[in-house]
Amino acid sequence: MSTTRNACKLCSPLGACIVMRGIEGCVPLIHGSQGCATYIRRYGISHFREPIDIASSNFVEATAIFGGRDNLFRAIDNVIKQYQPAVIGITSTCLSETIGDDVKRYLHEYKVVRTKKSASNDVATPIIFYASTPSYRGTHIVGFHEAINSVIETVATSSGTEFANGNFEDVRINLISGFVSAADLRELHEILSSYGVCYTLLPDYSETLDGGVWEEYQRLPAGGTPLRAIAAMSNARGTIYLGNAFNKDRNGAFYLQSKFGVQMCAVNLPIGIENTDRFFETINMMTGKTMPEKWAVERRRLIDAYFDGHKYCSGKGAVLYGDIDFVTAMRGFLSEIGVRVLVAADGAEVDFVTMLEMAADKKPDFVIGNSKGIYLARELNIPLVRCSFPIHDRIGGQRILHLGYRGTLNLFERICNVILEKNQNSMQSGWTYV
Ligand code: SF4
Fold it and tell me: Could you tell me if 87 and 206 lie in one domain?
């Protein structure tokens, strides 16, 4: 039996809740204890710096023995009463899975009970979808993709017109994003919009988790992928799936392909020139259009920056960690700029203690990943380049741009400047020009 010390991963329902906050009018409901909901709220709030309402079915000792059916019914009723949401996303926890709660059956029973009471209901029943996310089976990125798959299975219809108001254009594509920042989602919007095609970006927490200031508190912030856009995914020409956490059986893009014949293409997160080129080529192929000139300009600017900065980062060594989608894309980018990846860990298998043991004699120059690597960086006495999720110890984590040519440029400059700063600080006299 192996143990994990200082785990380099987050819990599975956390990933699911982030997806749920990226669907318009959706309230996440955790089927489990208050502690799970509090932990997830805490992580989300400290990264996004926004209030994040997450409901809970509030398990207590008796629930763990007799099951959580009644708690779940009460929780759904309360959420409907308080939020009047268009959607409720339910996510399971270690405890509800361990005691064997059959949430799918409960939801079927709930619908029957609610239909019987419908005459006395003055609030419409929302769409409810369920993601099974025991944390002992996968990390936050597994929960993230599970929730995407679940909402697609529930909402995407055979015609796709039920919610789409018939507003179809000739070309519609789907983009299923990985667990990226709010700024990344805005970049993806800008890229897709520049092609002049109709698209569904799922999930989309670019505004719900990084919106502007409010005059009054909003329980359900504006934004998110509209239900009608999710419904219309079945009518798209193709689906671009960003990431590698690929489970064929529980994958929204694969479901759309097998059920509705919507062609799917899985590509790495567009970080680095090569990955971003692949991403644009895939959009070109799916839309039948060519990349707009503005992105070619950004690509040239990025290459120019590589020329300017390569002498500072080339040959340096890095310790890289994070979720599998992020690590795979970053690895390609780092090798593209001449950085040697000495240790790469996706968190599912390798914890921070093991990472330290692996990195100690390799003399890395910097660590790159989320805020959880701060102790690793301190032990190694090297800087940490903060990116991905979560960023707890700095502000602006939700606005770090990683994707596309502009995101790559941002990461490249952050890495170069961290190396320069370390060199500068290590010299007594310092220097003022590079
Ligand atoms: S008990 Fe499981 S689901 Fe709850 S916070 Fe811990 S890892 Fe996540």
Answer: no
